[in-house]
């Protein structure tokens, strides 16, 4: 899935990216007949575009598949994880950043105060409801549902997944550990735009950074070039050192370039098939064809910088920890930060060593964003830490629906 975290100051641009489509301009007919040789195209009147709302009041389909989150009572610790995610959103909503984000939010009825009240009431219901049926009955009675219009204005959401990988690393460069990850430059705000591309920063082989702007910014070194690249795509990683110690790295900033998917590039060039594409297939192809890494990795010009978070929990763009399978990433210039949501789609699970897709309807908190997560039709679902989480996250390319929940007036 893609790089996950961007600076919170982009939240202030909410008002700039609201309107997604407009009605076609209507041409009027010329009332005076004219000869064909003198006929000209009549002028088109200026028609004010009609905006399409991002979120439409809706209701959940009355379908057994929408019985939400029965696993809250069936899986140990799952209720605690949901409550923890709610509490993290509530802590975010007390910050100045949240006040700024909601000050000019493009849906007037969605306010910081209302999102906070909704979370507090939902938390009470989760704590006090004895089962999924009673929780959902209370939610249906007390909450209004706002369905995202999706990228097609029909409510279709493309879900992908992301995770936190675990990699072997070194604090010093060696013959075995050659590929650096970098901290954010102290003078980054003064870099002129357009920023240097990935190719310009680290060279085609990712080993030329000592000749340019990245010199001296190395944080740690990894064994594999793909490890260093995927850490950038995921926006975080756990690093394990030979002395048995560990640390964590997290997103600190990025160059001002659009994210380019290597999977799409490989499909475009006929190297992989669209059907059944997964992150694992992309990585396997590039590792089995190492010469192709010099060609394809530079095609993603965006470069990610990290900070050493010293084993702190993974945090999202809101500055609060994200919880496996309870946190999602959306376009924060469009969607309400920290809000309670419902996702409905097929998601992968491991069953006897094999991945199988199961239909899931569950409560989540909107707590993150990503470089590839643009438009109201994209959601990235945080799966967790490690290889199994990575296998599952890399298998999510599914369509579904997204709803936000707010207390009724």
From TrEMBL:
Q: Which Gene3D superfamilies match?
A: Barwin-like endoglucanases, RlpA-like domain
EC number(s) of the enzyme? 4.2.2.n1
| Alphabetically ordered keywords of this record | Cell wall biogenesis/degradation, Lyase, Signal
Which top-rank group of organisms is this from? Bacteria
First-level EC class? lyase
Q: Give the residue range of the signal peptide.
A: 1-27
Domain Lytic transglycosylase MltA: where?
A: 166-307
- Where is there biased composition of kind Pro residues? 42-52
CDD domains named among the record's database cross-references:
mlta_B, mltA_like_LT_A
Cite the InterPro entries for this sequence. 3D_dom, MltA, MltA_B, RlpA-like_sf
List every stretch annotated Disordered.
34-53
The regions listed as transmembrane in this protein's record are: none
| Catalytic activity annotation | Exolytic cleavage of the (1->4)-beta-glycosidic linkage between N-acetylmuramic acid (MurNAc) and N-acetylglucosamine (GlcNAc) residues in peptidoglycan, from either the reducing or the non-reducing ends of the peptidoglycan chains, with concomitant formation of a 1,6-anhydrobond in the MurNAc residue
| Name of this protein | peptidoglycan lytic exotransglycosylase
Q: Which organism is it from?
A: Scytonema hofmannii FACHB-248
């Amino acid at each position: 899935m893609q790089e996950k975290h961007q600076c919170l100051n982009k939240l202030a641009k909410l008002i700039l990216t609201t309107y997604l489509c407009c009605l076609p301009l209507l041409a009027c007919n010329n009332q005076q007949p004219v000869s064909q040789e003198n006929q000209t195209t009549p002028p088109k009147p200026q028609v004010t575009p009609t905006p399409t709302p991002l979120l439409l009041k809706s209701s959940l389909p009355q379908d057994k598949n929408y019985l939400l989150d029965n696993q809250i009572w069936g899986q140990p610790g799952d209720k605690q994880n949901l409550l923890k995610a709610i509490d993290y959103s509530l802590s975010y909503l007390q910050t100045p950043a949240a006040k700024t984000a909601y000050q000019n939010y493009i849906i007037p009825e969605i306010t910081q105060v209302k999102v906070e009240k909704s979370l507090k009431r939902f938390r009470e219901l989760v704590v006090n409801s004895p089962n999924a049926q009673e929780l959902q009955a209370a939610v249906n009675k007390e909450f209004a549902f706002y369905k995202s219009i999706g990228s097609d204005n029909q409510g279709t959401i493309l879900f992908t997944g992301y995770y936190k990988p675990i990699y072997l690393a070194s604090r010093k460069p060696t013959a075995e550990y050659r590929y650096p990850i970098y901290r954010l430059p102290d003078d980054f705000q003064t870099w002129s735009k357009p920023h240097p591309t990935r190719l310009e920063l680290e060279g085609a082989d990712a080993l030329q950074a000592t000749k340019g702007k990245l010199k001296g910014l190395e944080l740690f070194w990894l064994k594999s070039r793909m490890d260093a690249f995927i850490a950038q795509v995921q926006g975080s990683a756990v690093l394990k050192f030979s002395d048995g110690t560990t640390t964590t790295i997290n997103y600190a900033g990025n160059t001002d370039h659009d994210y380019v998917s290597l999977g799409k590039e490989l499909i475009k060039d006929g190297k992989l098939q669209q059907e059944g594409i997964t992150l694992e297939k992309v990585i396997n192809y590039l590792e089995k064809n190492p010469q192709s890494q010099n060609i394809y990795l530079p095609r993603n010009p965006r470069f990610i910088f990290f900070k050493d978070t010293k084993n702190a929990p993974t945090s999202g763009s809101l500055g609060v920890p994200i919880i496996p399978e309870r946190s999602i990433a959306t376009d924060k210039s469009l969607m309400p930060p920290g809000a309670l949501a419902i996702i409905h789609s097929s998601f992968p699970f491991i069953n006897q060593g094999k991945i199988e897709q199961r239909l899931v309807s569950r409560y989540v908190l909107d707590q993150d964003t990503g470089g590839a997560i643009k438009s109201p039709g994209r959601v990235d679902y945080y799966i967790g830490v490690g290889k199994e989480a990575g296998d599952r996250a890399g298998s999510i390319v599914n369509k579904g629906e997204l709803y936000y929940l707010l207390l009724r007036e």
